[in-house]
Amino acid sequence: MTTTTTTTAETVLDASGVTMRFGGLTAVRSVDLTVNSGEIVGLIGPNGAGKTTFFNCLTGLYVPTEGRVSYKGTVLPPKPHLVTQAGVARTFQNIRLFSNMTVLENVLVGRHTRTKEGLWSALLRGPGFKRAEAESRERAMELLEFTGLAAKADHLARNLPYGEQRKLEIARALASDPGLLLLDEPTAGMNPQETRAAEDLIFAIRDQGIAVLVIEHDMRFIFNLCDRVACLVQGEKLVEGSPEVVQGDDRVVAAYLGTPFEGAPGAEEVAEVEAAEAEAAASTPADAVSEGRESTTRTTGPEKETP
Ligand SMILES: Nc1ncnc2c1ncn2[C@@H]1O[C@H](COP(=O)(O)OP(=O)(O)OP(=O)(O)O)[C@@H](O)[C@H]1O
Ligand SMILES: [Mg+2]
Question: CATH 3.40.50.300 residue ranges in the chain?
Fold first, then answer.
């Protein structure tokens, strides 16, 4: 992290005791996480670990079952548009663009939380509206320059290659002038060159004073980019620390490989299920057991549970 002795880091995001249950499934369990100004924080974990669910709790898409999320000292209301207005922007794991709108129009949509012109002004297209529209366009074009998409401003979003659609999502998120940007798998589907460029783009975003929390499966990308990394496993925060610490933690490797380790989140439940299944198998006729029953040797792997 590039801080000087005179810089005091401010807590931008403070998530405390965030739990999200879906029926019987606890997708996120009592997770604490902070992001400070000037930081890029990574969130890793196997498939189904609860990373996206956690993002959804942070951004008001889900109302957490328990816990609290604050942005710069103020508790965030669990409503996506209010969270955006407060200064938290995000991109989605499954790209959500307006595919039949142009690249520029997509960024303008992201800008609307920052325009003060109301409905009547927009309908009557008065001078205030025209001025606001011109300013929004200017800012949107700046963001397209920044993300390297300016030459494609008039292209339909659906005609962009996948990597550029991801960049456009970032440009649209930046249009709301956030203080914190949440990125859910920003390099998924990118080739190595695009991934490198995405890394540079995220550093540049951080250098503009926007704190970043990023989910990614590409470990080289995460460990290169982040000041701090937290690893979720089965909804619980297993490890948090510098890239070096997390990289060297055997439990993180074990969690990804699905091998057992002492005190693994969910290990007790898995052991109980396995014991119950073994008991059921012992008391079931052999032909019933052999009929397409799945292996029950999973330990701490990321298999999804049914709510
Ligand atoms: N709306 C929902 N209703 C019920 N269960 C859900 C819902 N959203 C997520 N889950 C479950 O919560 C768990 C965590 O899912 P989530 O998508 O957060 O994982 P993830 O860490 O983002 O995984 P991936 O790396 O594959 O994107 C999974 O078991 C998933 O099936
Ligand atoms: Mg996800």
Answer: 9-87+178-307
Q: Ligand 1: residues whose CB is within 6 Å? A: 22, 25, 27, 45, 47-53, 93, 304-305, 307
The ligand 1 atom at the shortest distance from the C-alpha of residue 56 is 18
- Ligand 1 atom with least separation from CA of 23: 4
What strands, in cross-sheet order, belong to the sheet with 180-184? 88-90, 180-184, 211-215, 40-44, 228-233, 236-241
Nearest CA to ligand 1 atom 17: 52
pTM as predicted: 0.82
Specify the CATH number of the domain 9-87+178-307: 3.40.50.300
Tens of pLDDT, residue by residue over 231-278, are: 999 999 999 999 999 999 989 888 876 665 556 666 666 667 677 777
Burial class (CB in 10 A: 0-12, 13-18, 19+), 284: exposed
